[in-house]
Structure to design on (129 residues):
C-alpha cells in the first residue's frame, strides 16, 4: 500500500524560503511524484512533479523560477524547495502518486489532480508578515 507523508510546512515571511519533504513508501521507489496545493475556498491545483528517475521535472507557471523539485531515490524522498514565497502561496501542500493510467500514458505532467490516486495528509504553508 502506497503511503506518502509530507513535512516541512510552517509560517514564513514574504520573500522567504521553505523546503517541503515527501516520504514515500509502498512503491517501487521510482514512481513519479507530484506536489499540489489547496488554499481555503479554492480548488486543489498542481504545483510541480518529477519523473521516476528524476530526469524530468514540470512546474506550474505560477511557481516557475521560484520552486525546485528534486528527489533522492535511495531514500524514497521528494523535496520541494520554495524560494521567494508570496502570500498567494499560502495553502495546504500535498504530495501524490499518479494513477496507473496517467503514469503509463505520461499525462501526469499535466498536473491534474484527477490523474493522481494516492495522497498524503498535507502540510500547511503560510506566507505572511
Amino acid at each position: 500500500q502506497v503511503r506518502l507523508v509530507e513535512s516541512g510546512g510552517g509560517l514564513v515571511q514574504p520573500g522567504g524560503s521553505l523546503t517541503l519533504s515527501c516520504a514515500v513508501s509502498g512503491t517501487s521507489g521510482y514512481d513519479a511524484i507530484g506536489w499540489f496545493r489547496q488554499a481555503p475556498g479554492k480548488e486543489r491545483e498542481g504545483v510541480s512533479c518529477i519523473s521516476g528517475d528524476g530526469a524530468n521535472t514540470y512546474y506550474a507557471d505560477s511557481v516557475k523560477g521560484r520552486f525546485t523539485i528534486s528527489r533522492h531515490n535511495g531514500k524514497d524522498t521528494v523535496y520541494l524547495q520554495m524560494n521567494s514565497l508570496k502570500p498567494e502561496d499560502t495553502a495546504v501542500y500535498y504530495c501524490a502518486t499518479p494513477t496507473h493510467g496517467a503514469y503509463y500514458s505520461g499525462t501526469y505532467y499535466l498536473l491534474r489532480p484527477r490523474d493522481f490516486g494516492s495522497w498524503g495528509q498535507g502540510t500547511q504553508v503560510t506566507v505572511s508578515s
Remarks:
- The helical segments are 100-105.
- The first helix runs from residue 100 to 105.
- The mean pLDDT is 93.
